[in-house]
Amino acid sequence: MLQTAAHPATCVFHAAFKIVVLLIYIYGRYIHSAYVSTFILCTIFAALDFWTVKNISGRLLVGLRWWNLVKDDGSSEWVFESNPDEGSLNATDRSIFWGVTYVWPVLWAVFLFMNILNFSLDWVLLNIMIFVFAGTNLAGYWKCSTDAKKRATQWVQSEGMRAVAGAMGFA
Amino acid sequence: MAYEPTYQSPQFHGGDGMVTPSGSIESQQGRCTLDEPVTETIMRDLRSIGMKLKYVMLPRAREDKGQGLREWDLWGPLVLCLALGIMLSMHAEQASLAFGLVFIIVWVGSGIVTINALLLKGKISFFQSVCVLGYCIFPLVIAAFCSLMLNVIWLKVIFVTIGFTWATGASVNFMSELLPEDRKALGVYPVWLFYVAIAWLILIS
Fold this sequence. Notes:
The complex is a heterodimer. Chain A is mainly α. Helices cover 76% and strands 8% of the residues of chain A.
């Protein structure tokens, strides 16, 4: 499957940190219970994963990027950046990126729910944190892509209007 | 078609009323980041964190009201919170409780202090405020580290007091600057309380 990807190393890293977090969590929660070290390791790898997805894999796999800009008067604005040339994106890259990005927060929402039902509030804290990491990336990229789609629709509409106006002007 | 790495405003420009499908928005830093190599991205973020930590430690933070912390990021507070949690849970009987408590107090505490400032009609951006409060924990983290090394009780008190004064001084200036005149005390008191809570956590462990 990876042979068709344009950036195989990035695809691997996009999933690798997440797999590490999942393995550490399952080991620390169910197999050999150790709260503090599991929490620390999961947090570190979840943070690395968040940074990688936000700064690297989004950029390279689907040409999207989002961040927060603080203006001189102190107000902040969320910026969503996208590559207008959608055709240059590789289909495998795109499906791997979006597939993993969608599944990851859902998985942690499930863990969170399970731990709430068990009343294991210390694991709930860890689940909340990783869910926040996962959900933030998903929300950011989703806004990026809807922004891109909206801009593309607007552009198509304005081009269409200009074509109509041009045709009428020349009629 | 090569992706053009320059920034164009998506608004009308040039008077011809053209809306481009490009997603770039005029960036005040004017930097193009969609094509940069990976190491450059890593170094930029690491340098930004290091610069902010240094900024918190220098007394200059008192004068220019925390402008160096304007470009917020939450990595510093996360690292500091983890470090503090590790240090405080090392010798605790209930390590997981101590660790969880540190985490909750740092994040929920800074969230509540920020919301309080926002409710007082302060001109504060939420994440920027959490960033400042988080970075200003740095002196207390150093104090916790020193008190871990030397287990003498009165030395611990001295270190923690110095750390607390330093931390509060650095962040109170930032907070009071952005609050309306008659509500400065209401906004600053929770900040003081926040650092007292952390200092107390360090002292009792």
